Amino acid sequence: MFILGINGSPRAGGNSDLLLDEALRGAASCGARTEKIVLNALRYGPCQECAKINDDGSCVVQDDMQVVYAGIREADALILASPIFFGSLSAQTKMMIDRFQCAWIARRILKREIFSTRKTCAFISVQASSRRDFFDNAKAIVKNWCMTINAHYEEELFCPGVDGKGSVRAHPDCVREAHELGRRLASMRV
Q: What is the pTM of this model?
């Protein structure tokens, strides 16, 4: 099984990054092959809502998003990690998701599947406040993205009250749950 982790945090070594790494360690401990893409390290722009997409339904813009598309095509399962900023996903994460407009057009209008292999998806998120409802908007966006890429939204881990860089380490329950999330994903069959 190949599990792709996508880190949408702008902060290397931050809480989302640490939890994603722990989930990938959990998956690897069950024999899964893992890889991590750090969105902030890629060079890509926002969706331009092009009037035309490629005949196969793929995005016409050639930038580092091609790495993301290829990784998702190959993966059996995905783990997306993003902090909550102003009640939503990080800009890096939202910009990546918006770049799947081509997949939405292919699926809904052209009746083609760019991502033909069914996948499983998990979402990990942290935020500074203790309000659990602050995760709701981000969760809705991620669920729509999953539907667009032919992935089943299977797992989630929300850790409120986590702000300072690395402070998730003071929440061993979140770290432990991230590890177990990875183990569960690695043992699922799509």
A: 0.95
Q: pLDDT tens for residues 76-122?
A: 999 999 999 999 999 999 999 999 999 998 888 888 888 888 999 99
Q: Where are the domains of the chain?
A: 2-41+65-90+116-187
pLDDT confidence bin for 41, thresholds 50/70/90: very high
CATH number 3.90.1150.10 given to 2-41+65-90+116-187: no
Question: To which residue do tokens 């989630």 refer?
Answer: 156
Q: Which of 101, 87, 145, 126 is nearest to 7 (CA)?
A: 126
